[in-house]
Amino acid sequence: MTRNRRPLVAIYPGSFDPLTNGHLDLISRGGSLVDHLIVAILQNTEKQPLFTIDERIGMIREAVAGLNNVEVDTFEGLLVDYAARRGANAILRGIRAVSDYETELQMALLNRRMRPETETIFLMAREEYSFISSRMIKEIITLGGDAGSFVPANVANRLRAKFPALG
Ligand code: ADP
């Protein structure tokens, strides 16, 4: 049986401060499953981000340059409202460990209640990336360490340029 379906447009929301190898893996695996993937940087009010929104847009664009159905955008306000504006019918999220599951489940159920036509799709993190988080990278940087092996090469270069002490 064939069934005509709408193109699958998914949003991958996050703060991406900074983009990690785990995020990039999710973008490339997610991008190959859907027709169009929008990586959407949340413009929240975090007091001390490592990178500005513009820097994050630039870094993600560089890292996904080879993926032609992936775009990078920013949003503020409710994710489901942004999904409605962009005509997106899916939200992509990653699960690293049981600790992610609880908050992800809660968000997915809330989002479904607010906008049932948007499904949340979960991909499990790859084992080798499952311990990587932006928060941990920020901590390593703050403590003077080198987080270069946890992020894409272009992000590592920007980190070294911004924090020259890391060599
Ligand atoms: P982080 O959780 O690293 O601070 P975000 O808040 O930007 O990053 O996360 C956005 C999404 O990416 C979330 O669904 C999160 O579970 C997922 N994610 C984060 N790190 C990884 C990883 N290492 N592997 C797979 N998915 C991840």
Q: Would you write up a description of this structure?
A:
The chain is α/β, with parallel strands linked by helices and 167 residues long. The protein has a single domain (9-130), classed as HUPs (Rossmann fold, 3-Layer(aba) Sandwich), CATH 3.40.50. It has six helices and five strands; from the N terminus they run βαβαβαβαβαα. The protein has helices spanning 21-31, 53-63, 79-86, 98-114, 134-142, 153-162; strands at residues 9-14, 36-42, 70-75, 90-95, 119-124. It has a five-stranded parallel β-sheet, with helices on both faces. Helix 1 (21-31) links the parallel strand 1 and strand 2 (36-42). Helix 2 packs antiparallel against helix 6 (153-162). Residues 14-16, 20, 22-23, 26, 93-94, 96, 100, 125, 129, 132-135 line the site of adenosine-5'-diphosphate.
Per-chain topology:
Elements: E1 9-14, H1 21-31, E2 36-42, H2 53-63, E3 70-75, H3 79-86, E4 90-95, H4 98-114, E5 119-124, H5 134-142, H6 153-162
Parallel strand pairs: 1-2, 1-4, 2-3, 4-5
The chain binds adenosine-5'-diphosphate (ADP).
Largest sheet: 5 strands, parallel
Class per helix and strand makeup: alpha/beta
Q: Detail the poorly predicted runs.
A: none
3D shape: globular
Q: How many domain regions?
A: 1
End-to-end span in angstroms? 59 Å
What kind of oligomer do you see?
Answer: single chain
Share of residues in strands? 15-25%
Mean pLDDT across all amino acids: 94
Bound small molecules, deduplicated: adenosine-5'-diphosphate
Radius of gyration, taken over Cα atoms and rounded to an integer in Å:
16 Å
- Please name the CATH architecture: 3-Layer(aba) Sandwich
Largest sheet: spatial strand order: 3-2-1-4-5
Q: So how many helices?
A: 6
- CATH fold-level assignment: Rossmann fold
Query: What is the CATH C level class, in words?
Result: Alpha Beta
CATH homologous superfamily title? HUPs
Fraction in helix: 25-40%
**Strands, total number:** 5
H/E series, N to C? EHEHEHEHEHH
